[in-house]
Specification:
Layout (H helix, E strand, L loop, with lengths): L1 H8 L4 H4 L8 H27 L15 H14 L5 H27 L1 E2 L9 E2 L3 E2 H27 L3 H34 L6 H9 L2 H7 L4 E2 L2
Helix pairs in contact: 3-4, 4-5, 5-6
């Protein structure tokens, strides 16, 4: 009996051995989303510096060096490409998904906030100026690199986060991102109203005008231009 108890004591509990982000579950996808948000910010800042020789903020939200467009793109890669093993299929589906996602993001930004952050109208093989065939192919290559190189390494790092830290930290960041993205959307919409000459008609409008005026919004979304 004593030997049995000793052997049982040596068996680790499942909660202690299994990562909170084991496999492609919600937690894993969210942390990849956050990685994509930060990567997108670095990529956009670096690209602008290479093209124009100046360091300019290229964020997608008001608070933090984050660009959710890239975060959502990486999350979608896991959801739609996570079970695919063949490199050719990953590339082809990544090309289609990436091009469609970029087109949709441009369309939604213009419809919701009356602005655009990129215009490929003068580029080769563009689709309504919102994306191009060459850029879609780049999305396919990025998908292949992400799924075959980056994700396996990133996945192991995420799974090393202790359960006691991973669960609460994830939900704290989720709450922060919901607040950050909601506030950024409200501020962007109010920025469009100011551009159209719409006066502040509520306490929320006056709050946004005071703390998120046009000058500050220009710093956050320096690459966006109004279309209306």
């Amino acid at each position: 009996m004593k030997n049995i108890e000793e052997n049982v004591a040596l068996i680790p509990l499942e909660k202690e051995t299994n990562s909170f982000a084991k496999g492609n579950n919600f937690y894993k996808i969210f942390w990849v989303f956050m990685f994509g948000c930060f990567f997108g910010y670095i990529y956009e800042v670096a690209l602008h510096f290479v093209r124009f020789g100046e360091l300019v903020e290229r964020k997608g939200v008001i608070y933090g060096p984050l660009n959710p467009v890239y975060g959502f793109a990486m999350a979608l890669m896991i959801v739609f490409l996570g079970r695919i093993k063949e490199s050719r299929k990953i590339f082809l589906l990544g090309t289609v998904l990436g091009g469609a996602f970029e087109y949709l993001c441009s369309l939604m930004q213009e419809k919701m906030f009356g602005s655009i952050s990129w215009d490929y109208s003068n580029n080769f093989l563009n689709i309504d100026g919102r994306t191009t065939i060459p850029f879609a192919i780049i999305w396919g290559l990025l998908s292949l690199i992400m799924m075959k190189v980056v994700l396996p390494y990133l996945s192991k790092l995420i799974e090393k986060i202790p359960n006691k830290i991973g669960y609460p930290l994830t939900w704290v960041i989720i709450v922060f991102m919901i607040y950050n993205m909601s506030l950024s959307s409200l501020a962007a919409n109010r920025n469009l109203e100011r551009y159209k000459g719409v006066p502040a008609n509520s306490h929320i409008d006056r709050f946004l005008d005071k703390y998120y005026p046009s000058d500050r919004m220009k710093e956050v979304y320096g690459n966006s231009e109004f279309t209306k």
